[in-house]
Amino acid sequence: MARNELRPVVRLRSTAGTGYTYVTRKNRRHDPDRMILRKYDPVAGRHVDFREER
């Protein structure tokens, strides 16, 4: 089955300014806005907000 653009791959960049990123998928139908997740940043050594970049 071919991948469609309903669940695109998005990149989450740390708001701590370290440049660390996570890669995940999201459902555009349920989350049309930019995603913000609180995840661990190993460079900063703590949990910070990660925002979706385009």
UniProtKB/TrEMBL annotation:
Taxonomic superkingdom: Bacteria
UniProt keywords, alphabetically: Ribonucleoprotein, Ribosomal protein
One Pfam family cited in the UniProt record for this chain: Ribosomal_L33
SUPFAM superfamilies xrefs: Zn-binding ribosomal proteins
One GO location term (cellular component): ribosome
PANTHER family from the UniProt entry: 54S RIBOSOMAL PROTEIN L39, MITOCHONDRIAL (PTHR15238), LARGE RIBOSOMAL SUBUNIT PROTEIN BL33M (PTHR15238:SF1)
Similarity field: Belongs to the bacterial ribosomal protein bL33 family.
Official protein name in the record: Large ribosomal subunit protein bL33
